[in-house]
Write a structure and sequence with these properties.
The complex is a heterodimer.
Chain A (H helix, E strand, L loop, with lengths): L1 H25 L4 E12 L4 E2 L5 E3 L6 E18 L4 E3 L4 E5 L7 E8 L1 E10 L3 H4 L15 E2 L4 E10 L7 E7 L9 E6 L5 E3 L5 E8 L15 E2 L4 H12 L1 E7 L1
Parallel strand pairs in A: 1-14, 11-15
Antiparallel strand pairs in A: 1-2, 1-7, 3-4, 4-5, 4-6, 4-8, 4-10, 8-12, 8-13, 9-10, 10-11, 14-16
Chain B lengths: L3 H27 L26 H11 L12 H4 L47 H4 L1 H5 L8 H9 L2 H11 L6 H13 L7 H6 L7 H13 L14 E2 L13 H4 L8 E2 L21 H11 L18 H11 L5 H5 L6
Helix pairs in contact in B: 2-7, 2-8, 10-13
Classes of the chains: A alpha+beta, B mainly alpha.
């Protein structure tokens, strides 16, 4: 009889967690998914951004034909109506305009509730720039890493332009420390239209990204067709890119 | 109530669980996969923290395989070991500048890469901030190995032996750049030079000759301000008076600060007897030339280190003593240790 009890006990220990798991599944959802949708435009007149297409810059008049446009966004967090934050773990995304799926960022397991703001970092925070070999979006195979002066490239834009003296352009904008650090954290308030996460359907946060903004102060490619390291100009371009990254609306 | 038939399998089940638990414990203890960097107590704590990359035999062996494998280069001709040879304390084979793919020459001398886990930065200009990401630089440099990281990882994933070795060392089915970089780090972490005559002297196992001791004392007076013991570098960036017009801006390349013009990372002097030619561009072929530089060759420029403004006066005999001492820094055990061989 004693043995029987003992075995029963062992059985209960093994089975109990299984019950727990199955119970949890049956309850009403406590978490939901939020999608951050990035709509990439060129200028303010409604032109969509496209690679391998001649795009005329609205301010300096350059014709730019992009073969590559990639950038990092990281550390997404949502502010609840009560002032606390939901912070996405391992939150690093490489938006690559040759891959449309990367323009939709999924925030999974967001607790049900109402949210008033989203915060994010354009670029990669300094901690991940100084901690050795990373993985996922931060893998060096993504070719967004400066090997000769350690650090992630925040924006990489390359292509051709008839205005450029050598016919092409190459802008690698980055740097995570010092006076020219390109890494900038931003917050976008949802204003009157709160984000409510219900767990039943996905909610979307839309951003308009004006990809032309990066060159709104840099002048024509005729003057500068290459940026390869942090400088006052690269910081200006990073700031301009950030200013072109604007919250649009919540879509339920 | 629970009845027998249900019950017996449960009993077997718990037995199975216990057995599995025992087995998995055993695995960790019996298979002796352990390997860890060892160094004397007068060494400081290493800078590299081994986070998620504890060294063990599997990781070390994998890193060694990668270090000797030209597959990391574009045309499979150049391995890390080509420019970092054990017989030269992991510096290049006595050339000023190293040849990479297609015989292309770089602009800097290949340094000895011992005791890397103590180095806070890498490269002559300190541009790389972590040993794990270091290897991206030679692999992707167009005059060294000329490859892309993506292509290297694709190539490795097509080699069964590597897939097996990565599975064993890092428990992954698909080889990643992160695991490759960590494996190379595991190998480099073990390249520790702490077995020289100087070390035996520090540990009371041997004594230095009168002239070597003389040399040590002179060294402590004249050189240790930058080449500080026991690693024989303080890892700072200094202009030691080689030039006044700089082909290579050195530290300024990284900081863009003109005060850093012509400053280079103070190199360790361990194994210096084996690592000639000397300086970032390999301009001096003997230690005597180096000492003549410090006594009579200092070139004045705005960033010249304050301690060298008036050169380092030394008699011929003093120079000879210092050189005798520097030769006690040669680690013959390290350069012949089979463990690091292919």
């Amino acid at each position: 009889m004693k043995k029987l009890l003992k075995n029963l006990f062992a059985f209960a220990i093994i089975i109990f967690p299984l019950f727990m798991i199955s119970c949890e599944k049956e309850q009403t959802a406590t978490e939901g998914t939020v999608l951050v949708k990035l709509n990439h435009g060129w200028g303010m007149s409604g032109t969509s951004f496209a690679l391998n297409t001649n795009l005329v810059h609205p301010m300096n008049g350059d014709t730019m034909n992009f073969s590559k446009y990639k950038y990092y966004i990281s550390n997404l967090k949502l502010k609840k109506a009560d002032g606390t934050f939901w912070v996405q773990p391992e939150s690093y995304f490489l938006v690559d305009l040759s891959n449309s799926a990367s323009s939709s960022i999924s925030l999974n397991n967001v607790p049900v509730g109402d949210y008033t703001e989203i915060s994010y970092t354009l670029g990669v925070d300094s901690a991940r720039n100084v901690s050795g070999a990373q993985s996922g979006a931060l893998a060096t195979t993504n070719d967004m890493f400066w090997s000769w002066s350690t650090g992630y490239i925040m924006i990489k834009a390359e292509g051709t332009s008839p205005q450029s003296t050598n016919g092409s352009f190459s802008f690698h904008i980055g740097g995570f420390s010092g006076q020219y650090s390109a890494v900038q954290s931003k917050t976008a308030s949802f204003g009157s239209n709160q984000l409510s996460v219900s767990g039943e359907k996905n909610t979307e946060i839309h951003f308009n990204v004006n990809t032309a903004m990066t060159w709104c102060n840099s002048g024509s490619c005729a003057a500068v067709n290459s940026v390869m390291m942090p400088s006052a100009l690269s910081l200006q371009m990073a700031t301009d890119f950030n200013n072109g990254f604007v919250f649009d609306k919540i879509v339920e | 109530m629970l009845q027998g038939p249900f019950f017996i399998p449960m009993k077997r089940f718990s037995l199975l669980i216990i057995l599995l638990a025992v087995l998995s414990c055993r695995k960790e203890n019996t298979a002796d996969n352990s390997l860890s960097p060892a160094y004397p107590d007068y060494f400081p704590a290493p800078v590299y923290q081994f986070n998620n990359n504890t060294v063990n035999k599997d990781r070390f062996e994998l890193g060694k395989k990668l270090f000797f494998d030209p597959v990391l280069s574009l045309d499979s001709t150049i391995s890390c070991a080509k420019c970092h040879a054990q017989v030269h304390a992991f510096a290049d084979h006595n050339v000023s500048l190293s040849a990479g793919i297609n015989g292309l020459l770089g602009t800097r001398n290949s340094p000895s890469i011992t005791n890397m886990i103590w180095s806070p930065t890498f490269m002559w200009d300190g541009g790389v901030n972590h040993i794990e990401v270091f290897s991206v630089a030679p692999i992707t440099n167009h005059v060294e190995m000329g490859e892309s990281m993506l292509s290297v990882i694709r190539k490795l994933n097509n080699i069964t032996a590597y897939r097996t070795a990565f599975k064993k060392a890092y428990n992954i089915d698909e080889i990643t750049d992160q695991a490759m970089l960590r494996a190379l780090t595991a190998y480099m972490s073990m390249i520790i030079s702490a077995g020289s005559k100087y070390d035996e002297y520090r540990q009371g196992k041997t004594s230095l000759s009168a002239s070597e001791l003389d040399g040590l004392n002179l060294f402590r007076q004249k050189c240790a301000g930058c080449h500080s013991e026991p690693l024989f570098t303080d890892y700072s960036y200094k202009n030691n008076g080689l030039d006044s017009v700089f082909n290579d801006l050195g530290r300024e390349t990284i900081t863009t600060n003109s005060n850093d013009r012509g400053k280079f990372k103070v190199p360790s002097l361990r194994n210096v007897e084996l690592t000639y030619p000397y300086m970032h561009d390999g301009r001096f072929w003997s230690l005597r030339e180096v000492l003549d530089h410090y006594s009579n060759g200092i070139v004045i420029s705005p960033s010249l280190d304050a301690s060298l403004q008036h050169s380092i006066p030394m008699t011929i005999q003093e120079k000879e003593r210092i050189i005798e001492f520097l030769k006690t820094l040669t680690d013959w055990n390290l350069v012949s240790d089979q463990m690091f061989n292919k």
